[in-house]
Amino acid sequence: MENKIDVHTDGYQHLIGKISETYSNGYRKAVAAVNSNMVETYWKIGEHIVEFEQGGKIKAQYGKALLTNLSKDLSLSHGKGFSLSNMYMMRQFFIKYPIFQTVSGKFDRLTWSHFCELIPIDNELERQFYEVQSQNENWNVRELKRQKKSSLFLRLAASKDKEGILLLAKQGQLIEFPKDIIREPAVLEFLKIPEPYHLSESELETRLIDHLQDFLLELGKGFAFIGRQYRITLGNKPYYVDLVFYHRILKCFVLIDLKKEKVGYQDVGQMNMYLGYFENEENVEGDNPPIGIVLAKEKDDLLVQYAMHNISSQLFVNKYQFYMPDKEELRSLIVSQLQKENEH
Predict the structure, then answer these.
(1) Dist CA 162 CA 164 (whole Å)
(2) Band of the pLDDT at 107, cuts 50, 70, 90?
(3) 106-131 burial by CB neighbour count: b if 16+ within 10 A, else e?
(4) Which domains does the chain have, with CATH numbers?
(5) Single pTM value for the model
């Protein structure tokens, strides 16, 4: 008679758990090791190519011909992995990261596909930011592409002084204060809404919920979705907050009110009321004061300044747009800021 094991015992279930954990850890290490070896190999190939060129063995104008021949011959010998574009990337990889130690510490979180997105970025500060931020927020390649395309670094850097820009590039976007979660403007290109558009606020809200993963990526690290049209009652009258999130790092609620057109002073007052309600009625022990964001298509800075006079520093009025920002315009703002700082 075949012996049977009671699979429902605590001991057996514990064994299953230990084996599963061991396998998962081993699999992760194996993937990391493969990635580490691949990145190191490509860096060394780039080193060989550059050393060959610098050794005077070919003239500068023949560089493209060298890569073309290498691609052809190495593909015949080793198959995939030696396309002309890949050969170019390996060469650029060594040029952009000439000190191997600066690369080796990033192997566990950045793949060769990540580096293929980082290498073409000419500006060193910009490239360094995306490199650090990819590690900090564990971006996959798709997310890195999107953040590059949406000019995240340029949007964040445009409002900073020279010291802030250099710190942003070195450390990435650190979330320490409420203002650190604000991105001006918020870019909602993933909604694929052509302009001119005719959407109600509820339709805009629905589209954001339908694209919640993309919206969370735009909002940044730490956001957890709580609900939409969150009902609160004051004086027997119901009010509804468009979108409610909780920020795990700042340990507070984040309330977002959507406006399809220009923000008005009454919108600021309403959000301030929401903040007061959440702080007194929804917060529990350990929660910090809530943050409110009025997200509008347009805003008058002077009106907003006066509307927010003596109002909570936790309240922000932020613009959104449905298209990617003009990168050159943002870059010129940053360059002028850096130059202005150097003049003093």
Answers:
(1) 5
(2) low
(3) bbeebbbebbbbbbebeeebbbbbbb
(4) 10-98 (no CATH), 121-177+327-344 (no CATH), 186-324 (3.40.1350.10)
(5) 0.80
